[in-house]
Amino acid sequence: MSNLRVLLPIDSSEFSKAIADEVLHLYSPKTHDLMFLRVATDYNDTVDVERLEKSLGKELSIVADYFQEKGYQVATAVRFGKVVSEIVRFAESENIDLIAMTTHGRSGLDRLRNGSVAGEVLRSTYIPVTMVRPVARLSKGVVTY
Question: Which of 25, 26, 104, 114 has the most CB atoms around its CB within 10 Å?
């Protein structure tokens, strides 16, 4: 039996990277392979897309190296476009078994004002989504890679 493939969409924020600590607690390297995805949204016609993709790939390689040292099989990918659409498209095209991501846990007016990427991903795909709210760990500065 092959390992479950877990997609971890991250951006440059420490909040999004906090999923790293949770992965170590939730998913064993013996039974789970990890795929880290970075979706770039902050580019325009004047940006050298190839250079941006290379730069974002280097950022992801730091994360990948950390998890490879922990025994995980890891892959990385960079995509360009709308975050939710790209996460869902990528997960479905790559036969991902599970999507794991952080969430702010917003509700009410705050959620309406700021939106919820994790919530939109959850509603946009048939793939199971694990959402983690790492507030307590972040306040202790536990993000480790």
Answer: 104
Sign, CA dihedral 38-79-68-63, equals negative
Q: Give 108's contacts (C-beta < 8 A, 6+ positions apart).
A: none
Average pLDDT, the chain: 81
Partners of 38 in the β-ladder? 78
**Separation of alpha carbons 22 and 117, rounded Å:** 18
Name beta bridge partners: 33. Answer: 5
**Inter-helix orientation angle 83-93/117-124, to 10°:** 40
Contact 117, 88 (CB under 8 A): no
Rounded to whole angstroms, the Cα distance separating 21 from 82 reads: 26
pTM of the model: 0.81
